[in-house]
TrEMBL record:
<keyword id="KW-0812">Transmembrane</keyword>
<keyword id="KW-1133">Transmembrane helix</keyword>
<keyword id="KW-0472">Membrane</keyword>
<protein>
    <submittedName>
        <fullName>Uncharacterized protein (DUF58 family)</fullName>
    </submittedName>
</protein>
<feature type="domain" description="DUF58">
    <location>
        <begin position="204"/>
        <end position="249"/>
    </location>
</feature>
<dbReference type="Pfam" id="PF01882">
    <property type="entry name" value="DUF58"/>
</dbReference>
<dbReference type="InterPro" id="IPR002881">
    <property type="entry name" value="DUF58"/>
</dbReference>
<feature type="transmembrane region" description="Helical">
    <location>
        <begin position="37"/>
        <end position="55"/>
    </location>
</feature>
Length: 415
């Protein structure tokens, strides 16, 4: 709690002290009484405001904060609702007359004061406002700052209520077409199987109301005495690893992550198991190299995007290349032969080119190579030629250009 006088209270206190001293010096009883009354008013206001401090004691107020949606994509808005509740009559007294101010990270508020709508009820106050997610990451909200003044306006107190909350921000993503025929190729589709699963490669489950009767597996149903249906596992779809080379430049970093995330979601929507590999796996993930499947529902998209929230730029080009080499080695050690590798890369050094050359031995490898600065264009072209010699399909991109254009150019590199 922070207790302080208002300008009026400060002036009244000074006037009271001066009047009291003059009254004593001049022997003026009325002047002493006036000074004493002024000081008592200031002290009484301080005691009253302090006693009703909403952040202390067993009658303190409770605060709950909700953000919808959370996580939110960069560039989009989230609606925040803060509910301050009085749990007993004493807390209701503390709730009355409070003024509220919410705190938010600059990445959510843009450095501007938050404009909120306050709705009051007998035992509850609801504060609602919107924030604009400016950048990928995890950004704090709160705690709530409350202020109270006395009826005479001479004393004011401020306190914080509740704990900090967190809004997670995913990268901005762009819907991309998923031309599986281009990425996989017809010969591979014949070898791997079509999208419609056969009875040999489809898993069976119990019939649930609303299931399509055309998916009933009659022979298994007759054998078990209960209806069994084929669950669509998107059999024959190659697993996809999206390999991300994290650049040191902040602008290139966010654009690269956005491109990699968009690629990942496009392939997931196309029925492929997908994973995102950066060489710096998320320590919070139970198995950061596990593939995510579209059959997991909306949680699959969230699982992929969650892996991008905490990605950070390397401290140096050497560290970035070491992480990329580590990621390339991970692709060899996770036993996912025959997969599709989609890579978002920068100009590569000799060790990274050598590590990535082996990826194309057992995978269909595709790469976009960015030139972060005009000076890197020659290095990017050299990287593209080295990758193509190793069996990759590759094209050059420029950070900041439309993600869809980069994707279509990559697909066109197969021709």
């Amino acid at each position: 709690m922070r207790l302080r006088p208002t300008p009026r209270g400060l002036a009244l206190g000074i006037a009271g002290i001066v009047a009291l001293q003059l009254g004593v010096a001049l022997g003026a009883v009325d002047l002493v009484r006036i000074g004493t009354l002024a000081l008592l008013l200031v002290v009484g206001a301080a005691v009253a405001v302090g006693v009703l401090d909403p952040g202390r004691g067993k009658h303190r107020l409770s605060v709950q904060r909700h953000a919808v949606p959370n996580p939110v994509h960069a560039g989009e808005e989230a609606q925040i609702e803060v509910v301050i509740t009085a749990t007993d009559p004493a807390a209701r007294v503390r709730l009355a007359g409070l003024k509220f101010a919410e705190q938010a990270a600059t990445e959510l508020s843009g450095g501007r004061p938050l404009r909120a709508r306050v709705t009051r009820a007998p035992r509850r106050v609801t504060v609602t406002y919107s924030v604009q997610a400016a950048r990928r990451g995890r950004w704090p909200l709160g705690p709530l700052v409350v202020t109270r003044g006395d009826p005479f306006g001479v004393m004011r107190t401020s306190a914080t209520l509740g704990e900090q909350a967190e809004v997670s921000v995913w990268p901005a993503v762009v819907p991309l077409p998923t031309p599986s025929d281009v990425l996989v190729g017809e010969p591979d589709r014949v070898a791997l199987g079509a999208r419609s699963p056969s009875t040999d490669d489809a898993s069976l489950r119990d019939y649930r109301e609303g299931d399509d009767l055309r998916r009933v597996h009659w022979s298994s149903s007759a054998r078990k005495g209960a209806l069994m249906v084929r669950s669509d596992e998107r059999a024959g779809m190659r697993p996809v690893s999206v390999l991300l080379d994290l650049p040191a430049r902040a602008t290139s970093l966010e654009w690269s992550i956005s491109l990699a995330a968009s690629m990942s979601l496009a392939m997931l929507d196309g029925g492929h198991p997908v994973r995102l590999v950066s060489g710096r796996p998320d320590a919070a993930a139970a198995n950061p190299l596990a593939f995510v499947h579209d059959r997991s529902g909306p949680g699959a998209r969230s699982a992929l995007l969650d892996r991008t929230i905490d990605l950070e730029a390397p401290r140096s080009a050497v560290q970035g290349e070491a992480a990329l080499v580590s990621a390339a080695h991970l692709l060899h050690t996770t036993e996912a032969g025959g997969e599709i590798v989609l890579a978002v890369l920068g100009p590569l050094g000799a060790s990274a080119r050598a590590a990535l050359a082996h990826v194309a031995d057992a995978a269909l490898a595709w790469a976009v190579v960015r030139a972060d600065t005009p000076a890197q264009e020659a290095e990017a072209e050299h990287t593209i030629k080295a990758l193509r010699r190793a069996g990759w399909r590759a094209c050059r991109v420029t950070p900041g250009e439309p993600v869809v254009d980069c994707w279509l150019r990559l697909l066109g590199s197969a021709q």
